[in-house]
Sequence to fold (607 residues):
Amino acid sequence: MIPVLFFVIVITFVLMHLAPGSPWDREGRQLSPQVVENLNIKYGLDKPLWQQFLIYVWGVIHFDFGDSLRQPGQHVSDLILVSWPYTFTLGAVTFILLVPIGIGLGVIAALRQNSLVDYTALGLATAAASTPNFVVGIFLIIIFALGMNKLTGGTFYFPTGGMPSPFNPFQVELIMPVITLGALPTAYIARLTRSSTLDTLRQDFVRTAWAKGLKARLVVIRHVLKNSLIPVVTALGPTFAFLITGSFITETLFSIPGIGRTFVSSIAARDYTVILGTTILFALLIALVNLVVDVLYVFIDPRVRLTE
Amino acid sequence: MATAIGLAHQVDWDVPEQTGLWKDAWVRFRRNRLAVAGLVVIVVMIVLALGARLPATPGGLWKILHVTNSYATPSLQHPLGTDILGRDQLSRILYGASISLTIGIVVQFLILGIGGSIGMAAGYFGGWIDNLLMRFTDIMYAFPDLLLVLVFVAAFGPSFWSIFIALGLVYWVGLARLVRGQVLSIKEKEYVEAAIMTGTSPLKLIVKHLVPNSLGPVIVTLTFGIPAAIFTEAALSFLGIGIRPPEPSWGVMIEDGYAGIFADPRQVIFPGIAVALTMLSFTFVGDGLRDALDPRMRR
Fold:
């Protein structure tokens, strides 16, 4: 994990610094060379690249991610801490809704294979999987904000943006962002559950369970789901990571001041330290999630044993 | 011997007609109606997109401004209406199609070049080469895809070519892993052993055995990569880090239209439908190819 994180820092650092342009570029009137030179000295950008890199890594080891280059006086860690709750609340609410809906749809579709329910669920999942999330979000806005506003004469419609309180999971403002963010992963989980359940249904032990006269509910819960959900649980980890790291489009669309927005605006502004900080955070998150999944796997699948 | 031939002759009617892999796959592909529909949509779009790049056709209209004619409703002259600067929406969407399709399809060759050769080298040579290449692949895997594309595009500066190269430098990872796995499993097959024993040169082994036998899954993966690349370009342009206006990529049009969504929602509906329809078509074709090229899926 540590070596992966180290190389993540190396790659991002080198890419950022080899790029043409600098954080001090402005649209229109440029800063004078003297100012640029002073800024470079202030933020240590005048030193050779390898020295900058060592200083940065030394800081990261001490949880010091440096100061933002474009928002003077702001620590990167402060910027991240301020925007993190928004992204986390959005991701967590989506995740909590996504798991039962995705798995439920998948299981029902598999148990009623080739029925109307199956085709509807599969069709919805395919459509959701190949519609970009910003298109989903915009269509939601057109229907539920614009359309409903017109229909009800402005008395009832969904708000199109903002997220007034970062910690409150129950706010109207979250409805459309959650659907936008969750459509694709829900479709993915549903498809995965369906195909995995279909595979398990064809296994011999399931036929035996039916043959010995077990009730349908018991067959499904005890024999089918217990096995078919193993790959699904494994996929839930990366799905959660995706909800956090992939939220910047949703955040931009609905004006949520989360970490994705921070990342996108720092990219546009060439704010090296903020870009590095968020990238490290995202890579750390993914590494942690993978670790949790590996450990969980041992518990849910007795066939897997941790061996040295 | 004679009896054997006689028997073979008697059961002749039971032996299916000998067909090549590709003909067989085509027959199976044609049976999938959604896949064929997707293919038709894609072909029509490619033709229209080619037309959009010729200045003499209506597609060349995307640059023409009629500021007095902004947000015009659809009419014969402007089938999809006009945008805030009075530019014809249809021709802008067609021009956008040429950008999306070029990026989506052509970048797959770059991915094939990078991912294919890295995966092939890792699987074929094994040993420390495999170890080194796969560790590198694992590190690339630790980045979220879209995030890494963003960092690359930020480094190269926003333009068509930087998106193109960034996509290639990011999406090869999955293909490299796939090719390596394929090569490792094919290397165990008896016919490869036989080929090695009869003294086939490594180059011929790769060209004649390893490449053709791993082609099916590679083609399927690359086909599914097309909608992913189209999505990424549109997303980048939508975020304002991709193709820059006035060139009308679909993402740019959605970004523009989103700013004025309360004035005229059509500005985002049409390009939105275009992106979704294209991605859906490629997904259907990918599904069809997967079923057609994987003989084990034969029903």
Remarks:
- The mean pLDDT of chain A is 82.
- The radius of gyration of chain A is 24 Å.
- The CA atoms of residues 149 and 157 of chain A lie 5 Å apart.
- The first helix of chain A runs from residue 2 to 18.
